[in-house]
Every structure is written in C-alpha cells, then in structure tokens.
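Technical annex, item 7. During the second reporting period the consortium partners agreed on a shared format for inverse folding records so that results from different sites could be compared directly. Each record opens with the tokenized structure and is followed by the designed sequence. A conforming record, contributed by the partner at site C, is shown below for reference.
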C-alpha cells in the first residue's frame, strides 16, 4: 500500500479534502506534527507528501527551528522526485527550500478571490479560498502557474511533481470552521479581506469547483 504523509504545523490546519481523495485511491494516510519535535518519516516510507498551512512565518526559524528541518526534508523529497504539495505555509516552505525568498505581500488576502492561469490568460478565473499575509518568490527553475489581483505569485510547479499553492483548494466545511474559529482575529477590514459571512457565502458558491480542481491537480502530480 502506498503511503501519503500529511505534515501539519498547527492542530487546526489539517488535510481537509486531501484525505478522502487519497483514501479513495488506496493510500495509507498518516499525519506528522512538526510541533511535537519528532523525526519526520524516512523518504523510503513516503509516496506522497503534503505540507499544510499555519499562522507562523517561514522566517520565524528562531521561534520554530523545525521550519528549517522541514525545508531540508522537503528539498530532499523534491530532489527525489516524490509528489510534494505545499499549501500556504507549506508552499512558502517549499519555495524557501528551493532558495526563494518569502516576505510580506503588499496586501493581506483572506476570503474567496479569483486566480488566473498565467500560462493561459484567456481561461476563466477560478475563485478559491485564501488566508495569508505573506507570499513567496517563484523558485528558480519553476513554472509560474497562477496569480490574483491581490497576490502576484499564487502557485508554482518545480519539476513535474512539486506543486506549491498559496491558496486553499482543500477547504471543507469542517476545515474552514476550524480555520475561522482559530484565526477570526485576522478578519479586520482590508482591501482583500472578506467578512466571515462573505467567506461562508463564498464556500457555498465555489467550494465544489475548487475541490474538483484539487482532484485534477492531485491526479496530475501523483500519477505521472
């Protein structure tokens, strides 16, 4: 049986819609909690790795020294050409592992905002869930995939199997409830910050399309 590892940085940002998709394809889904200071799994025991989000910054390495350990692990997994997916903080940590900088974005972006395919500008924008104040530079040798009005660098592909996503296509009702409950204090008025009511309205309107896109991305990354 193939094994998929979910890396969590905080208890309230779990796998969301990743888990049922992985289970449906027969993966043994395991979680690793970086804050418990344990040793991450050996690469020989990994078929897919997904690094989730978190409220800390990639640059907070003095407070969270395991961020550097994760970057080393992610770099090793990517160089081994394992399927690696990063979400929000996870994507920023992938970018840092590949030598790119992570810094404050000109705008905080929280809520359902459309992303545009950089490689196919004529395609229709897709609203997805965002919850971030920082952004990554596109790592050298990567393909810049998507952008939004509030954040230029929304996603990248390094090689054929390492995908960094600034946004949250994995949002389920349960995962979004947990995110809002723990980060409600960040919902202060701003240009690209929606209210809690707007976020829930966006989930009702857009989560099915976002989840479908997530499934397509997973199939592309995991079954190459």
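Designed sequence (site C submission):
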């Amino acid at each position: 049986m193939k094994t998929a590892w979910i890396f969590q940085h905080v208890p309230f940002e779990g796998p969301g819609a990743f888990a049922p998709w992985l289970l449906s394809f027969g993966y043994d889904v395991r979680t690793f909690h970086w804050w418990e200071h344990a040793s991450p799994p050996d690469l020989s025991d990994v078929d897919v790795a997904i690094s989730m989000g978190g409220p800390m910054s990639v640059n907070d390495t003095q407070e969270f020294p395991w961020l550097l350990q994760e970057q080393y692990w992610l770099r090793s997994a990517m160089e081994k050409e394992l399927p690696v997916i990063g979400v929000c903080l996870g994507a920023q940590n992938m970018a840092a592992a590949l030598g790119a900088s992570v810094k404050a974005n000109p705008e905080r972006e929280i809520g359902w905002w459309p992303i545009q395919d950089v490689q196919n500008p004529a395609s229709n924008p897709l609203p997805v869930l965002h919850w971030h104040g920082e952004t990554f530079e596109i790592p050298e040798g990567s393909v810049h995939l998507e952008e939004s009005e509030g954040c230029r660098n929304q996603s990248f592909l390094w090689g054929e199997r390492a995908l960094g996503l600034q946004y949250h296509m994995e949002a389920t009702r349960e995962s979004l409830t947990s995110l809002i409950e723990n980060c409600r204090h960040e919902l202060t008025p701003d240009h690209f910050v929606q209210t809690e009511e707007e976020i829930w309205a966006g989930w009702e309107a857009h989560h099915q399309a976002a989840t479908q896109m997530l499934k397509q991305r997973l199939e592309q990354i995991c079954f190459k």
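The mean pLDDT is 96. The chain has one domain: 3-222. All partners now use this format for quarterly exchanges.
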